[in-house]
What does this fold into?
Amino acid sequence: MSLIIDHLSVSLNSKEILHDISLMIKSGEIHALMGPNGSGKSTLAGSLMGNETYKVKGERLKVKVDDKDITNLKTEERAREGLFLAFQNPIAVPGVTVPNLLRTALNLSKNPPESKRAVNNPALSFSEFNKRLLTTSKQFNIPQEFLKRSLNEEFSGGEKKKLEMLQAVMLKPKFAIFDEIDTGLDVDALKIIARGILELKKNGTGIIVITHYNRILKYAQPDYVHILADGSLVETGNKSLALEIEKNGYKKWTNKIL
Amino acid sequence: MQSPNPISDYKYGFHKPENYAFKSKKGLSKSVVEEISYHKNEPEWMKNFRLEALDIYYSKKIPQWGGDLNHIPFDDITYYMSPTDRKVNSWKDLPKDIKDTYDRIGIPEAEKKFLGGVSAQYESEVVYKSIQKTLSAKGVIFLDMDSGLRQYPDLVKEYFGTIIPPVDNKFSALNSAVWSGGSFIYVPKGIRVELPLQAYFRINAANMGQFERTLIIADEGSFVHYVEGCTAPIYTTDSLHAAVVEIIVKKGARVRYTTIQNWSTNVYNLVTKRMRVEEEAVGEWIDGNLGSKLTMKYPSVYLVGKGAKGEILSVAVAGKGQHQDAGGKAIHVAPYTTSKITSKSVSSAGGRTSYRGLIQMLHSAKKAKTKVVCDALLVDDFSRSDTYPTMDIRHNDIQVEHEATVSKIGNDQLFYLQSRGLKKADAEAMIVNGFIEPIVKEIPLEYAVELNRLIQMEMEGSVG
It folds into this structure.
């Protein structure tokens, strides 16, 4: 199974931000996407998830989950095809709890035929759901009390990131994009998050890790590292590329003054 | 049945059965009011009360604030109809959206027919009787208002119209003149009624009248929670609902009154609700308004005893063509009284909500405290929300807090929830339900569940 990004160009307020991006992520692979600030990393994440703020263009353009063309699908339809985005700044939704959201999301994946479900995304009974939620939240050191609170409201940056990871693991997506999941994490939280990524990988999820730093990649080693600079994919390599960036920065790939 | 008025029995020489069919002719007049009183076999004082109220009603102008009340078809209204005459609708004549709603919130067949006005009686008689047995063992009275007047004329006479006199406003005067149905509750000293009393248990057409009148007396140190209304839409061809609710909370007692109203969208819902809260007593209103064309309702607490507490939780949802003008009032008369008003309103599909509130602290209200929080949520750009808070403070040694917010459902919130697989309408419903959650968690579970589903449907409707 693969997520195929085929000649994707994206603009925001008629300004082109991403130019002709092509990328293929296979099940169980970890791809790190690195690049300086403002290079278009979050725009890529948002447009893959179908954020309508961004205008996607290009005649040859296709985003595919396997053979299914999702280019013209709405955000929720992409989610049901098995795409997941962990947000850089998860927004607060007062009065809605994580279990409430997850239960709704999982129930939605009940109805479509088997083939349309996300990987191993079975309809869960109430008690199965609770059991799994309990185990998973323990795994990420998330106190039970957090699950009673409003989504992303009055949580620290690191706590929000853990809750994003919790959702990813509960939803078992085919492909997951982690947009700067490592920012604001202390070293213990970082290890926990990396463990989550590895678990998803083991279960066959294809993963894009968007990051500025090599440190998370030490714990969740990428199969590929891509560099996005000024809206273009400029280089692809293996994990040593991340080390090189850590040492020398992005000077080599961009004309911008950093 | 005990007859409270031997004179009228003598005069007419017969006793009418309770379900005697009678329908007043359209429009209002002195003879219509007299007829109502006659057909209900009421004591003379009640007839006079009604007639005086009618004069007051005539003397008052239609309010020109709040919502637009200038198109109520007063002359086209039937002001009284006996229960047996209410069987007016045929199932096939009910609007499709009402039937769909009943199906989708999954309410039982018998109840559907009742709510749709197809049958006059909802078969809950058995439940009611068993509850009655438990209550009367404790000395608690729980009757419809007409029976209350027949069986406890002295108690009713002592309190009726004392909290909300006919002269209060045009619609309390109208209600006083033509009232029918509603509930009468008396809880004796020190008695705690642990189960919420629901009008539902003894729901029948008499109870669901357009001009219900409810009187609750909680004697010293007692407790009762009364639940009225229902979340399912009530279909009625009557266009005016003008109720009056009077509550007396005596020293150290606590009364909570929960209402969820969802009238069909042709109805003007104009209700006067007031509690008199005595020393160290607690009065609480939880008031939810979903349906109707226009609601004007401001439950109030009169804190007349030292240390009395009042709380008002109000939630209003206005969809297409609806105006919910709701809020609350707290009048601090005695020292050390506290009040809290929390209002949450949601406007969608061009609907309009207004928070209208009054906090009054008299010279005598030393060390009184109040907190008012009103939050409005707009689902889209063409809906509307306004806030009209009034504060009248006449003492310096008091504490007042006021917070008001207006927010709009953000694209970021929608995108987040949609990225988890929720459709836009589902995402909106989740945000709206989350927004009103602090109030919904205070209402009985079965109402809360239905309320959430209704909001879901409302959002689907407004998107589609």
Remarks:
- The longest strand of chain B covers residues 268-277.
- Residues 1-20, 120-124, 201-207 of chain B have pLDDT under 50 and may be disordered.
- DSSP finds twelve helices and 19 strands in chain B.
